[in-house]
């Protein structure tokens, strides 16, 4: 086949080494042992995004039944527990975490909510544009350091 | 009605047939007996009884028939090895069939799949359900019955039956031997035995082997009857020897007729059997009879008996054992209930008959009786008993048994999730990687759950069955795990969880990709991509996106998901040979990189992390290049047929500009607009000739389209063959596009290299040979020298708000394109400023040559220069001789009007008054470097041919940098001397880098005559050296026009305050006295036209700046009609310097000498008291207040006490106090500093305050009060005698002056008769500091 000679030695995987976190339900046996996966905004960015994105389904389902703003451990994907906070304006904050820290997460969410409201009150801030404020980022990080 | 029990949980019946029967079936084109019997399953309407003797009707009673010999063989294989083979077998089946599945699914469409079932999941299910190998862990596949079948065609049928019965079963010891044995005698029509003999045989067998004996009469015609469709046998793992990568072949048959054609990919292949109708009826009757008379009653009896034993033990022992366990912590083993389990009633000779089962089967022993009870009860539909027993089992075995079955039997509750999770976690316990056997078990659990639980229950939000499949898939990276994930995704979609479904699809694709199953991988990725792209419905107002000016895009938030999917898809397509598709994906991917969202960085705990996507663009580009080059190589120009949707753009039309030849300063567009406005204002009163726009190009002259390109990628790229597509809108010679291309020459740039994220302006030259209107339509290029693309240069029109429809729906005006008019190049002037950058010293006067060249074809007779209002440029005039007098008078227009464009006298610099084509003239201009810093001098040259009806313009910009030279400060003080009222101190510090010489000091004032006091200042000043000069200022006797100027300003400001329209009268001219002071004989005259122009310009700029800053609310255009250039009492100090060959001057303008008397007091008071005209707008009111405040504080409304008192006495005295107190003569001098008004004063003595510590002796004799009246600038002197009673140092205080400023002056009204009123009154005490003092010494 003439094509074969031109095939590069690619790994066709764009997710190589990253989707192991998504490896399904490694079930209960991996609950404790999966902590070694890379975390944060680094190389697992799209995995984390996919988990956060998928958890929106559950969050929206819970929101229909529950009035609470803080949705504690609303979903779980392997070692990642998803906690969420739904503002009265239906903006959702999603946090993926491994350790259990309900009070800290709640305090963090409340802080972020306040920061978000302040940022959203900026008349030049559109609801559809990400918050690209260094001050906002810095304060969210500071709050994370404090509470998480 | 009980839920359908999965096939794998149905009774397993083994068939052992004699060779003669096999031979007979084969000769009749029939499959083996077990397959024939399986074709009659499921059985309709079978009724069973529960332990409570309730009837349960099974609409479809499932049975599994298999060949005993095969079962015996497979049981010998190691379970782990078999599980491994099973996984490989499933994988090979999937990979070999998936391409066809995808084709079929894509043909009929995903939406049209029957019940939403996918062929891959059906295949996986059938492979799993088809496994009937007995397992050590569970008893479902352990045979519950054995059919021993012979045919009457055997030489000795009875002997054959005996042989079958006496045959030793070769099953392992852990296989439950409990089961019934039935004997089947098949009597074909061509049998040598007649019916009587068969009946006798039957009776003999019944007598010997019990009642479970059946006779099946078959016709089996020699010619096979037409095939009848029957359910396809489930695929089974081939024996170890036969395993290969091809799917299992059904045992070959003589009538191997091709299966019926498939209806679609989702439907299983239909199987057929060639039996006559009578045979079918007979066989069906046998199967039904076997089930209803033998199998079910036997199982019911087992359940009854075992249940009794179970109930008996549960009563005490389980409680007892659980207590024991609690106390002693030993692991529990189920009680060995050696109850009276019924032996197989029909198999008394069964050699390994165990009437009881062992407790546990984990160690390879028999399945427990309890488990068999639960399984039997489940098979018979006795769910009440089954649930109780399974629950007990689950508790007893800590969940290793029962958890997997309970979800099938219980109503949907959240507890089911826990059962399922527990069942899977027990299998995968303490295993980092699941063994093959564990994988097959979890797979079978998942399949049973999916099959055995109603879908509505399975997808219930409390059950969430899709997650069960994901748990079952575990970490296994085999195709079956991937299919479990994919089915979980499908179930999630059915539940409405689109986003989660998409995630599972991606996960499934990822695993399949590792296994190399590319068609399914691509299909799942494409499915996931479609799901990710589809936006969920949001119940938001439709105006919400409009209000935000943007349509929501989920990809803004989750920007890393789609690129990952698309990249994998592209690469997969490329590796599978779908290069065109791959190129499409790569192009989409590159389009997604547009914008800044692909630059991700994250900071965690202060550590800046790059997520590796910085290089993503480079990888995408490389992949795109490789794929596209391959596409080109394989399909020639096939890429042109692709019609690729290029989603990324490089050109920024808004930043793209047209630049004309000679117009290098397109950034100065506002300045040029201002210059054109200046010209139009200037020329309006002189003529009607219009100024041609400078936006037109000329034929045979190049102009440039400055295309701004921005590389949106994070990697370097090249664009080749970059050019601009132009369109000729109308041409005098031709309008066709073809000839237009001949009229125009557009440059093509071979290659442009753009770095990552770089923005660069690329000029593309265009030249037209004929006058035309040219429009720039597109920018075209070849991306990476591969993909030809073009981008429109159109800019979207403004949003329209005219009608209601336009306001409600976004409507934009027509797109605008860059266009330019090309004119005949007949009248052109080239400007050459010669020097590029100019560095001057502060105050330097520089002569700047400008070369003008007539590059057109017509004469130029008139050239005007239009410069900025504050640009100190003037035409150079011939210099005057040195000053002859030290006092000169300049007649000033006294106007703040901006300088007007000036005409270049061509006659003066050229040999004729006409500049002919090709001729050049050098025109000197003088520039005054008035302020330190950098500035751009933008000049517009307006020219025409004599009598022409229009002007043309040319432009020139000059950069000038001005460095500091002198730092000057000027201060004025009232003088204590009689000769002159003011002393002025001028201080100059050389802040430059080299020495400079101060050659001359001049003062300019309408009122004050200055002269030098002493020396200093003039001469060489070294760097950082400070020189000082004192000047005296006295009133200039010939001062005229001061009052007129004051009256003009007062009147105009009054009009402003009253809100009256300002008339266009200008201030009256004024004479300005210039006093020249120099040590040198060569004194520069201020009447020199160059110097005078520059000084006027400097003063005008200074005063205009002050007025602009102070009176912000008065329009700048009306300033010349309100504010005069000179305040009569102002004084300008000009210091001339020389530095080698450079000369210049520094002016310190507008020093106010003299006092004012609040000339606008009455008007201000009047305006302030005017309450009725308050505006309803707070802004207007505030503006008015600010105007009033500014005028009140302005130089035209100053108010100061005009009377200044000077005291003088000898500073030191010696006195013999023995002779009495010391007399102290003190001289008091009072001067009226007002230029316009008389003052009346009263000086009172003896007003000693307590704070005056020194002892001052009041005059004991003489006046206590002095009175008098002073005309403007007049002085009065009187002597007072004070007495000191002792030696010491005394201050001369203790007096007070009362001043009345009179309304009019004796100058204005010399013959006054009426009493004059006071305008202002001031009372001033002797100052407490800076007071004269005296020291008196005592001497004998």
UniProtKB/TrEMBL annotation, chain A:
One of its GO terms (cellular component) is cytoplasm. Gene3D superfamilies: 3.30.450.70. GO terms for biological process: endoplasmic reticulum to Golgi vesicle-mediated transport. This is Transport protein particle complex subunit. It comes from Rickenella mellea.
TrEMBL record, chain B:
Transmembrane segments: none annotated. One of its GO terms (cellular component) is TRAPPIII protein complex. Residues 331-351 have a biased composition (Low complexity). Pfam families: Ig_TPPC8_1st (PF24545), TRAPPC-Trs85 (PF12739). Residues 220-266, 331-365, 1304-1340 are annotated as: Disordered. Residues 695-833 form the TPPC8 first Ig-like domain. Coiled coil: none annotated. Residues 222-241 have a biased composition (Pro residues). Residues 352-365, 1327-1340 have a biased composition (Polar residues). InterPro entries: Ig_TPPC8_1st, TRAPP_III_complex_Trs85. This is TPPC8 first Ig-like domain-containing protein.
């Amino acid at each position: 086949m003439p094509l074969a000679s031109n095939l590069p030695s690619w790994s066709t995987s764009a997710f190589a080494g990253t989707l192991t976190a998504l490896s399904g339900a490694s079930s209960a046996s991996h609950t404790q042992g999966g902590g070694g996966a890379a975390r944060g905004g680094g190389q697992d960015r799209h995995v984390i995004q996919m988990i956060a994105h998928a958890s929106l389904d559950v969050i929206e389902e819970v929101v229909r039944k529950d009035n609470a703003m803080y949705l504690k451990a609303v979903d779980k994907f392997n070692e990642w527990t998803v906690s969420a906070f739904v503002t009265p304006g239906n903006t959702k904050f999603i946090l993926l975490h491994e350790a259990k820290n309900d009070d800290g997460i709640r305090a963090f969410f409340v802080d972020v909510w306040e920061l978000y409201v302040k940022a959203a009150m900026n008349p030049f801030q559109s609801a559809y544009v990400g918050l690209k404020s260094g001050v906002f980022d810095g304060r969210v990080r500071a709050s994370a350091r404090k509470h998480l | 009605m009980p839920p359908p029990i999965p096939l794998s949980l149905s009774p397993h019946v083994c068939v052992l047939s004699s060779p003669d029967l096999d031979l007979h079936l084969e000769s009749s084109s029939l499959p083996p007996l077990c397959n024939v019997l399986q074709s009659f399953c499921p059985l309709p309407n079978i009724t069973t009884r529960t332990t409570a003797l309730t009837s349960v009707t099974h609409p479809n009673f499932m049975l599994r028939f298999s060949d005993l010999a095969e079962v015996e063989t497979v049981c010998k294989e190691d379970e782990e090895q078999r599980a491994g083979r099973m996984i490989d077998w499933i994988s090979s089946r999937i990979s070999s069939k998936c391409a066809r599945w995808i084709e079929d699914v894509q043909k009929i469409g995903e939406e049209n799949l029957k019940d939403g079932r996918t062929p891959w999941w059906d295949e996986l299910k059938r492979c799993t359900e088809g496994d009937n190998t007995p397992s050590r862990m569970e008893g479902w596949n352990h045979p519950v019955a054995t059919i021993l079948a012979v045919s009457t065609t055997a030489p000795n049928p009875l002997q054959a039956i005996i042989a079958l019965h006496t045959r030793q079963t070769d099953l392992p010891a852990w296989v439950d031997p409990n089961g019934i044995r039935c004997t089947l005698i098949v009597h074909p029509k061509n049998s040598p035995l007649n019916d009587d003999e068969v009946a006798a045989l039957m009776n003999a067998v019944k007598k010997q082997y019990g009642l479970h004996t059946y006779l099946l009469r078959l016709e089996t015609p020699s010619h096979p009857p037409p095939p009848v469709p029957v359910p396809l046998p489930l695929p089974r793992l081939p024996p170890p020897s036969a395993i290969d990568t091809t799917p299992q072949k059904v045992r070959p048959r003589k009538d191997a007729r091709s299966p019926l054609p498939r209806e679609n990919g989702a439907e299983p292949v239909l199987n057929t059997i060639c039996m006559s109708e009578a045979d079918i009826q007979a066989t069906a009757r046998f199967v039904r009879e076997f089930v209803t008379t033998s199998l079910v009653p036997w199982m019911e009896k087992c359940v009854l008996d075992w249940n009794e034993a179970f109930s008996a033990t549960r009563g005490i022992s389980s409680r007892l054992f659980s207590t024991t366990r609690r106390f002693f912590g030993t692991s529990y083993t189920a009680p060995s209930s050696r109850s009276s389990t019924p032996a197989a009633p029909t198999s008394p000779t069964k050699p390994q008959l165990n009437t009881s089962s062992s407790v546990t089967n984990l160690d390879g022993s028999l399945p427990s009786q309890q488990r068999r009870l639960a399984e039997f009860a489940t098979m018979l539909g006795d769910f009440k008993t089954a649930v109780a027993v399974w629950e007990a089992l689950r508790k007893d075995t800590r969940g290793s048994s029962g958890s997997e079955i309970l979800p099938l039997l219980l109503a949907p509750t959240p507890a089911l999730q826990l059962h399922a999770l527990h069942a899977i976690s027990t299998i995968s316990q303490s295993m980092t990687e699941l063994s093959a056997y564990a994988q097959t078990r979890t797979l079978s659990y998942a399949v049973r759950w999916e099959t055995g639980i109603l879908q509505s229950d399975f997808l219930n939000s409390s059950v969430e069955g899709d997650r069960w499949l994901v748990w079952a898939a575990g970490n296994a990276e085999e195709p079956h795990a991937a299919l479990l994930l994919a089915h979980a995704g499908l179930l999630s979609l059915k539940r409405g969880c689109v986003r989660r479904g998409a995630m599972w699809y991606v996960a499934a694709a990822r695993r399949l990709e590792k296994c190399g199953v590319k068609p399914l991988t691509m299909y799942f990725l494409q499915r996931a991509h479609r799901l990710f792209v589809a936006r969920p419905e949001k119940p938001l107002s439709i105006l919400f996106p409009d209000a935000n000016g943007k349509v929501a895009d989920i990809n803004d938030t989750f920007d890393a998901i789609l690129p990952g999917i698309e990249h994998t898809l592209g690469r997969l397509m490329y590796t599978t040979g779908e290069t065109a598709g791959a190129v499409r994906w790569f192009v989409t991917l590159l389009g997604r990189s547009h914008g800044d969202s692909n630059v991700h960085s994250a900071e965690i705990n202060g550590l800046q992390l790059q997520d590796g996507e910085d290089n993503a663009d480079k990888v995408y580009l490389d992949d795109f290049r490789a794929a596209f080059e391959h596409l080109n190589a394989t399909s020639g120009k096939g890429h042109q047929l692709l019609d690729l949707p290029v989603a990324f753009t490089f050109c920024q039309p808004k930043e793209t500009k047209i630049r004309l030849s000679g117009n290098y300063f397109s950034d100065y567009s506002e300045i040029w607009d201002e210059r054109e406005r200046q010209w139009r204002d200037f020329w309006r009163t002189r003529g009607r000739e219009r100024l041609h726009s400078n936006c037109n190009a000329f034929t045979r002259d190049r102009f440039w389209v400055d295309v701004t390109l921005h590389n949106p990628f994070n990697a370097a790229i090249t664009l080749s063959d970059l050019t601009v597509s132009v369109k000729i809108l109308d041409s005098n010679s031709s309008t066709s596009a073809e000839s237009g291309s001949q009229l125009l020459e557009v440059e093509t740039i071979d290659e442009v290299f753009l770095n990552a994220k770089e923005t660069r302006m690329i000029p593309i030259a265009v030249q037209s040979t004929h006058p035309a209107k040219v429009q720039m339509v597109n920018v075209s290029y070849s991306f990476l020298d591969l993909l030809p693309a073009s981008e429109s240069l159109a800019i979207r029109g403004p949003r329209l708000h005219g009608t209601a429809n336009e306001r409600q729906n976004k409507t934009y005006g027509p797109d605008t394109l860059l266009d330019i008019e090309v004119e005949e190049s007949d009248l052109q002037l080239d400007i050459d400023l010669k020097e590029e950058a100019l560095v001057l010293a502060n105050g330097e006067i520089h002569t700047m040559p400008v070369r003008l060249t007539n590059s057109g074809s017509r004469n130029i007779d008139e050239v005007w220069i239009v410069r900025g209002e504050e640009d100190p440029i003037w035409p150079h005039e011939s210099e005057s001789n040195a000053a002859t007098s030290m006092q000169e008078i300049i007649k000033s227009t006294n106007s703040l009007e901006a300088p007007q464009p000036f005409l270049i006298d061509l006659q003066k610099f050229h040999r004729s008054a006409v500049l002919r084509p090709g001729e050049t003239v050098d025109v000197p201009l003088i520039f005054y470097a008035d302020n330190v810093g950098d500035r751009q001098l933008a000049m517009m040259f307006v020219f025409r041919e004599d009598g022409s009806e229009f002007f043309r313009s040319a432009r020139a910009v000059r950069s000038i940098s001005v460095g500091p030279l002198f730092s000057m400060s000027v201060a004025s003080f009232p003088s204590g001397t009689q000769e002159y009222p003011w002393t002025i101190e001028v201080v100059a510090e050389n802040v430059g880098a080299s020495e400079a010489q101060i050659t001359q000091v001049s003062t300019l004032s309408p009122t004050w005559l200055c002269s030098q006091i002493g020396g200093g200042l003039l001469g060489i000043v070294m760097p950082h050296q400070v020189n000082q000069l004192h000047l005296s200022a006295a009133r200039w006797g010939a001062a005229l026009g001061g009052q007129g100027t004051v009256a003009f300003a007062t009147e105009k400001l009054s009009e402003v305050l009253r809100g009256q329209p300002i008339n266009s009268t200008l201030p009256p001219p004024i004479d300005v006295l210039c006093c020249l002071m120099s040590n040198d004989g060569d004194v520069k005259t201020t009447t020199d036209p160059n110097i005078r122009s520059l000084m006027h310009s400097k003063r005008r700029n200074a005063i205009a700046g002050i007025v602009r800053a102070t009176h912000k609310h008065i329009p700048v255009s009306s300033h010349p009609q309100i504010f005069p250039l000179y305040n009569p009492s102002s004084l300008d100090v000009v210091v001339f310097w020389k530095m080698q060959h450079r000369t210049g001057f520094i002016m310190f303008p507008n020093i106010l000498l003299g006092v004012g008397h609040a000339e606008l007091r009455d008007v201000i008071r009047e305006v302030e008291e005017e309450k009725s005209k308050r505006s309803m707008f707070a802004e207007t009111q505030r503006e008015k207040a600010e105007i009033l405040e500014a005028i009140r504080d302005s130089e035209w409304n100053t108010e100061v006490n005009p009377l200044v008192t000077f005291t003088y006495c000898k500073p030191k005295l010696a006195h013999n106090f023995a002779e009495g107190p010391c007399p102290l003569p003190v001289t008091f001098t009072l001067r009226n500093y007002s230029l316009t008004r008389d003052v009346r004063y009263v000086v009172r003595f003896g007003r000693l305050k307590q704070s005056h510590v020194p002892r001052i002796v009041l005059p004991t004799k003489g006046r206590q009060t002095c009175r008098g009246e002073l005309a403007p600038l007049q002085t009065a002197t009187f002597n007072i005698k004070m007495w000191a009673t002792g030696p010491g140092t005394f201050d001369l205080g203790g007096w007070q002056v009362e001043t009345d400023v009179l309304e009019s002056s004796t100058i204005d009204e010399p013959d006054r008769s009426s009493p004059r009123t006071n305008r202002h009154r001031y009372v001033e005490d002797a100052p407490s500091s800076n007071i004269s003092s005296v020291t008196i010494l005592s001497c004998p």
